[in-house]
Amino acid sequence: MRSALLYAAAAALAAVVAVPAAHAEDTITLTLKDHKFTPATIEIPAGTAVKLLVKNMDATPEEFDSSSLHREKVIPGNDQGIVLIGPLKPGTYKFEGEYHDDTAQGRVIVK
Amino acid sequence: MLPTLIVVFREVLEAALVVGIVAAATKGVAGRSFWIGLGIAVGVLLAGLEAGFARAISDMAQGMGQELFNATILFAAVLMLGWHNVWMGKHGREIAADAQAIGRAVRAGTRPLYAVGIVVGVAVLREGSEVVLFLYGIAAADPGHAASMLVGGLIGLALGVAVGLATYSGLARIPMRHLFRVTSWMITLLAAGLASQGAGFLMAAGVLPSVGGTLWDTSWLLSQSSIPGLVLHTLVGYTAQPDGLQLIFYVATIVGIVGLMRLVSAGAKSRPPAPSAQPAPEAAGE
Questions:
Q1: B271 with B91: CB under 8 angstroms?
Q2: Which domain holds residue A85?
Q3: pLDDT by residue (tens digit) across A34-63?
Q4: Is A61's Cβ below 8 Å from some Cβ in B?
Q5: Alpha helix (H) ranges present in chain B?
Q6: Disulfide: which of A107, B88, B166, B240 matches B224 by Cβ 3.0-4.6 Å?
Q7: Do A97 and A40 contact (CB within 8 A), yes or no?
Q8: Closest Cβ–Cβ partner in A60, A67, A76 for B54
Q9: Burial environment of residue A10 by CB neighbours within 10 A (0 to 12, 13 to 18, 19 or more)
Q10: Are residues A21 and B68, on separate chains, in Cβ contact within 8 Å?
């Protein structure tokens, strides 16, 4: 029973890693500097998948966090990370930098 | 110092709650302190490694390495929690019925205890890597204030641990005959919450699709980033804006674990009882 579980887990893991995130969507660059996001407002059309390239220009790490977008990702200092979002229904989706949530705020407006 | 304290407290709190529940759930199974301690130690070590390799991990799988890593360890914890519950379901009746049966359960129980270590390790790893990255980044970027920030971090750590200990001692007060059932439900919900988080990461990585989008938004009622919201998020998997996929994983985990527990305990009931065990009270069964 236990080895069957292990095999199943290994197979699932292999499948997950092998599936390429083959997205041909547009890339929007989101810059974080002095713990503030630029641009603070991003507009995308409804129903599209978009790649956010989050560039952390600060020396300290930040956690890109959005409950409405279901995304949580740590971007180390002087580094960048990719956040895939969409397709989304129309609305406003807020995101923040969890470690500096007083200044690092932004939103994605989906039309 | 205060912002550092709060951030660290929140991260540690999530891990400490898991450790407290798992410790209470294995109360009476000797040797579990060793495995829990080992889990914490290994978790801290791996957290440091994960923080150190953050860039490399992130770059894997077309930039989705972090999401896949998190999903993997979360589902590993779900499996371990489920297994633990099933095992305790099989032996819990003996443990609940007769304190001296604990000695026998110890010999029978040492093997699955590494599952407990894994769960604890995953919880500490998940939150620990964020704490390490956060504190290291603060200290590196602002050496002048590093000392006061690290103090804030240590206080946050201590507070988080205190809440974990309080959770444990609160649960440990429950009489043994009820403890098994209470903690087994807490473990089931804990696992369901972790599965829901794991599903969220698989969605973020583009491996699984959203199902119906965000189903509801209760953040007006209880924000997930508030302390009570965070506690509920860890304990029962409360998600203010859940995606349909997460709800599916949540329910499936509960059904799966409870189903397996009943299956296994039905099998156990058909075997003749151990000669020196007192008859188990009916209430101890599921």
A1: no
A2: 22-110
A3: 999 999 999 999 999 999 999 999 988 899
A4: yes
A5: 2-25, 32-52, 54-63, 65-97, 101-109, 113-141, 143-172, 176-204, 227-236, 244-269
A6: B240
A7: no
A8: A76
A9: exposed
A10: no
- Higher per-residue confidence, B43 vs B88: B43
Report residue A99's pLDDT band, with 50, 70 and 90 as the boundaries.
confident
Q: Are B222 and B168 in contact (CB under 8 A)?
A: no
> Which of the residue ranges B86-100, B119-133, B178-192 would you say has the lowest mean pLDDT?
B86-100
For helices B176-204 and B2-25, what crossing angle results, to 10°? 130
CB atoms within 10 A of CB B284: 17
To the nearest whole Å, the CA of B106 is away from the closest chain A CA by 20
What amino acid is encoded at B111 in this protein? R
pTM above 0.90, yes or no: no
Number of domains forming the structure of chain A: 1
Q: Name chain B contacts of A83, Cβ cutoff 8 Å.
A: 204
pLDDT of residue B30: 75
CATH number at residue A49: 2.60.40.420
Query: Is A55 at the interface with chain B, CB within 8 A?
Result: no
- From B76, B203, B217, residue closest to A70, measured CB to CB: B203
Residues of A in contact with B76 (CB under 8 A): 9
Record: contact A60-B243, CB cut-off 8 A:
no
Q: Is residue A1 assigned to a domain?
A: no
What does the alpha-carbon distance between residue B271 and residue B286 come to, in Å, rounded to a whole number? 17
Look at residue A65 and tell me if it is in a domain.
yes
